[in-house]
Amino acid sequence: MNTTSHRPRATQWRTLISGMLLASTAAFSPLHAQAPTPAAAPGPATTESPDTITPASAPTGTLDAARVDTFLDGLVPYLMAQGDLAGAVVTVVENGRVVTERGFGFSDVEKRTPVDPKTTLFRPGSISKLFVWTSVMQLVEQGKLDLDADINTYLDIKVPAKGEPITLRQIMTHTSGLEERMRYLIVLGPDHPANRDNYLKDWVPNQISAPGTTPAYSNYATGIASYIVERVSGQRFEDYARQHILQPLDMQYASFEQKLPAELLPHAAKGYLLGSGKSYPAEKNTAPGVGGLYASGSAMSRFMMATLNHGELDGQRIMRAETNAQMLTPQAAILPHLPRMTLGWMASDTGGYDTRSHGGTMLFFYSWLWMIPERNIGVFVSTNSVGRDAAGSALRAQVWERFVENFLPTLPIERAGPGVDAATAREHAAALAGMNWQSTRRSDSSYLRMLSLFAPTRVHLQEDGTITVDGQKGLNGQLLRWREVSPWLWQQENGRGLLEVKVKDGRPVYFSGGPFASVFGFEPIPGWRSPAWLRPALFVALGLLTLSAVLRIGGVFVRRYYRAIAPVEGRGLRWLQTLALTTQLGTVIAWALYVKSIAGPGAISSYTNGPLILVQALSWLSVVAAIALVWVAVRAPASWPRVRRYGAWVVALAGLVVAFVAITQRLISTGLQL
User: In terms of Cα–Cα distance, which of 385, 399, 400 is closest to 83?
Assistant: First the structure.
């Protein structure tokens, strides 16, 4: 998500803990905040849209290449300098021709190698998924795959580990219901020993929502889809994509090989956190279809032109026109007014234009690909560095939004509803603001559940009756304001974006909004582990345990100063209490150090299980320690002063809170999944 230089504490936790989620994963920056215009008479959520899309009309005009170049030359270098970015590429296509392909900055800062849009290989991240979906649809055309069959028909492992059958259609619309799985997906260095089976088979995620009901972007599910392509075609995904997509489209400078062939290796851009900093080893995707593509800007231009031209380019057809149209057609609605997924593409709105897109974020590369089929326009943007305050994310959003503003006719903003009275607006806003929310895209079986405790998503009621939502920002970096225009439907102030809430028995149970609505939303955190009470309780408990430890240590020095001897009675209980208290505080410190250690780009490549096993073992001991503290309180001898006996119960209750957090936040999980 977007960050600022002055992050609130919750955002710092969100950044720290979710660093492993890589958002390449969740490449849906709030800066890219366009959302759909109101849909006319939307159908019910259970109804499939027809598998057709209106073909692009005859060209209504062409983009002037010189004007586009002038626009890009004025915007991109400025954003790069401001954000400390090393290099970037932008390509624009229209009506089957390349309008422009522009390289900026350096692919290798140390060698001062400039970005060449035709040959420099960027890492488009999750845009790679579009090639998985294209492969799936090719096999559907051939009758080898059925979008609505149980995926286990094609697999040699059982997916999900627990839950209902999943179909490829649900995987392509990110409604498989699977929790997130990141461990082993992205590692550093092409020779890293982690492989596809480590990612797909070592641990199969559980299903945390019924398939087909809840958007939840899933890297793992995409990995399974690419594995299905392998099993059905009899080829590695890397080979299948090269033979059936890259070569037919003459995408010469593109590859899914994580160890690049010798002829392509010199063209790979290096990755940077900051353009002024050091470069890092190449990122390896163990399941390449999830985010492992190497591609030049020119290669991505050819992919966009083929898709906009109904699956054909220069006489080479990668799929039938009707299949191509089927891929671009929105599927079933989850919330009727919000963007839908097509079969693999995100449908959204930019400036009133019906857009198809997909983003990608690697450890060091930010990318996005957009198309407006009705205008036969496509734009691809990628940077090879994160930049200051995630400037790479901001750049890709700025380029696209400003491009539409400058080169397409301005369309009027239509209001999505007549509005609601002030009392209703405040009542509904208060209902949303009174809850702590968690993303549907999450890991529920691992310690990453801590994210919902330390960085829940909150809705905030503003004085003017609008609401804001944590993390949802516009291009100016400010939180977007939403005003209710129909019951439980909000529209962005002075914008087209919509935010919609699902209500059950008069209570909000789900909401989403903006361009990410097709891939995830937010659900209430259950009351029994709500941060509204659990987080303060944890901080109080840790304070009490720390105070007890300080008093215990101080007591030793006081007795030594006065040459006093500690009472013999209950000495064993005192030692047990000290050991249990030390264990609990030590566990908290160990987890803090572990989370900090895995937040850096290099740490994500680690496949060493030792540190994680250690902190999980300590978490188990902290639960045992809590029981020991209760035992001390129960068995405290009558000879102990009343303050000490009461204090034993206070410490025991504090220990139980810490143990409760360890259990409910999955810190005692024995699995090594992320």
Answer: 385
Residues 6+ apart with CB under 8 A from 576: 628, 631, 632
The structure tokens listed for 572 are: 């064993």
Q: What angle do CA 350, 353, 355 make, to 5 degrees?
A: 70
H/E run at residue 107: strand 97-108
Q: Are 294 and 254 in contact (CB under 8 A)?
A: yes
- 596/395 Cα distance (integer angstroms): 28
Nearest residue to 150 via CA among 162, 136, 166: 166
Q: Are 256 and 237 in contact (CB under 8 A)?
A: yes
User: Is residue 556 classed exposed, middle or buried when 0-12, 13-18 and 19+ CB atoms within 10 A define those classes?
Assistant: exposed
pLDDT less than 70: residues of the chain: 1-61, 566-568, 600-608, 670-674
- Residue 642 DSSP SS3: helix
251 and 295 Cβ atoms separated by less than 8 Å: yes
C-alpha dihedral sign at 154, 158, 159, 162:
positive
Amino acid letter, 407? F
Residue 589, judged by CB atoms within 10 A of its CB (0-12, 13-18, 19+), counts as exposed
Cβ atoms of 515 and 35 within 8 Å: the answer is yes
pLDDT value of position 35: 35
Q: Which long-range contacts (CB under 8 A, 24 or more apart) does 309-317 make?
A: 309/96, 310/55, 313/96, 313/249, 313/250, 314/250, 316/248, 316/249, 316/250, 317/248
Q: In a 3-state reduction of DSSP, which class is residue 90?
A: strand
Nearest Cα to Cα of residue 222 among 183, 185, 251, 260: 185
Quote the pTM value. Answer: 0.89
